[in-house]
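S1.2 Input.
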Amino acid sequence: MFQAPRGTNDLLPQDQKYWRYIESKAVDLARQYGFGRIDTPVFEDANLFVRSVGEGTDIVEKEMYTFEDRGGDQVTLRPEGTAPVCRAYLEHGMHNLPQPVRMYYFCPVFRYERPQAGRFREHHQFGVEVLGDADPSVDAEVIELAWRLMLSLGLKDTSLLVNSIGDTECRPAYVGELKNYYQGHESKLCAECRQRLDRNPLRLLDCKVETCRALGDEAPRSSDNLCQACQDHWSSLRGYLNAVAIPYEIDHRLVRGLDYYSRTVFEIQPLEGGAQSTICGGGRYDGLIESLGGRSTPGIGFATGMERLALNLERGGVEVPDEPSPKYLVANVGDAARPAALELAARLRANGVGAILSSGSRGLRGQMRQANALGIPYTAILGDDEIEQGVVMIRDMQASTQETKPMQEFLDSAGA
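S1.3 Output.
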């Protein structure tokens, strides 16, 4: 028997309410902040991610789904959402629009990694991107949006972590200092971090292995090695976060896993689970558009995993409204009344009222049981007598009461 591929997941009808709840809250907030929706292709030119995400990252080296299509082009299933939005910004001349351009998206992303709770090889993200403004007040707005999303969903046991990792002016010197520090402790590094030491020393701070984490606690701090421009940006950001009363902690080990980040980086984590359970992460990427062939354009954004959010909603016992069920089940007494029942169900739906036709050739009692099993509050019953008299019998399934109404009167009032 076929099964879903490893690392993928079926989203069943009973689980949909969590996703629809997250989507509705996210869209409402995004619109409040002036964001418009963008949708990009599921696959892109493979070089888009090599150039933007970085050749030395785990995503490019180990996790991307890259293949040659029938035309001989190398394409990659989207492993993250920011680079495609930046490509669209360039391709469609959005630099000519009033800046900054604010966009949000929902999209599946694909990474060949070890499946874990809330994270699959195909998972889904809600993300936002702001392109065209370098002011730290924009960073504060984006972080505020992420934080307010968590609160609006009812996720209160979370922490917001922020850091600054500098830019192309000051980061090279910091990376050199970091490399010198770790070379003095190379024997204590895990095998993967020993490989990272030469090609991407920043990622050593992000390692989850305990011995590497202990070394990271004593490692040089990026915030102590900022140039004046980055220091001013970092100081202003903290002032803005304080101004809007967003609680945050400075995490000097926070670097994020993609090469395009600069200056501001941030994550939101559940209080239980830590970095391995991060539910939202993002930061500034002022050099990304330029690396893709555009002119220098600042940018900042974040992404949050839908699966991780849904998992935390369930674990936290957050009450999420059920998906609405039809208001009426239309039942028929005898096979001769079946066409009239089908017509009534169709007329209800045409009037914008949810209705389904009872299943098969069950007796009336079986049709009542079906309505109860589906949580449908009312049953509209048609038999030969009702059809002849032009009426319909309405049964309130919760109160166990029923009344007969003229057909047109019922149709006029059914949506009330």
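S1.4 Remarks. The chain has two domains: 13-170+226-315, 328-410.
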